[in-house]
Design brief:
330 residues; Rossmann fold; UDP-galactose 4-epimerase, domain 1; binds ligand G4F
Amino acid sequence: MPAKCALITGITGQDGSYLSEFLLAKGYEIHGMVRRVALEDPDHRLSRLRDIRSRLVLHAASLESYASIHRVIQDVQPDECYHLAAQSFVSYSFDDEFSTLNTNINGTHFLLAALKSLAPQCRFYFAGSSEMFGQAQEAPQHEGTRLHPRSSYGISKVAGFHLTRNYREAYGMHASSCILFNHESPRRGFEFVTRKISSGVARILAGASTELRLGNLEAKRDWGHAREYVEAMWLMLQQPQPDDYVVATGECHSVREFAELAFAHAGLDYRRYVKPDADLFRPAEVNLLKGDASKARRVLGWTCRTRFEDLVREMVEQDCRALEMAAKVR
Ligand code: G4F
């Protein structure tokens, strides 16, 4: 049987790199859509793919250009398409609502429309987000919880979620969405709070920094390990019927707890180093996200395995190691 062919948007990111490794191990032929600048600056922009770069086929395209997406889909003719690319930093979406909405909504729409006309049998995955729940009326949140996004990022994900469902219902496409709660790893971007904290601890331990400025310490998130979340993406596309699934750990912790554990792991008291910074608060905060992944467990057989404490430790250790400080980590 010929290898299945997967197209991944956002392949250069945390999830894209884990998903690529997972699919390569399953014998997939993998194509990735990347921005042209990434191909011109591979050391920096393709760093997460360094070890597997020679086994991937990368295509230059932009989420803002239907023509470029159309060309890639025509050339690749994928069996499965994993749409991970987005402007994904919630804070930035307050600074530039227009580009967040344009890129995220149009990108998803362009992909769905191109697949519908060029590869209608292709199975499509959309990376939805728990930010779609926003100001949720209940906890834990599940597939039926009312959506109340609190940022243009959240709104763009709601639009992508509805577009995906509509292509499924209107055109019979195998199009599914995951509602992913926060998922982290040592490959997380430095702008997100978990990596900001783990790398901040490493810098303080190395003497390269004396403090860490953070915004809302009381926000609570459901943090899992990204390596496990990409398994759910694949499982969804192996189902006979397309559908939507929450993927989460079901546990939630505050930013303060994350910081306390991360500093404690390095033998430090976070209260000495973490400085509150009002400028880092968001105009509209999502206070508590906690997911109910029972449908994913029941239908997909998906489970999360990494405990919160182990996730924090792994991130701190990797960042310390990167600064050659591993020996000092307890
Ligand atoms: O790490 P964050 O920036 O992630 P956020 O906003 O929850 O979004 C992430 O998870 C979503 C899934 O739920 C994804 F869809 C999205 O793409 C992204 O991956 O912030 C987490 C919390 C927030 O409440 C924020 O206000 O941490 C709080 N926080 C406090 N101080 C901070 C900081 N966040 C950041 N980035 N930087 C701070 O200094």
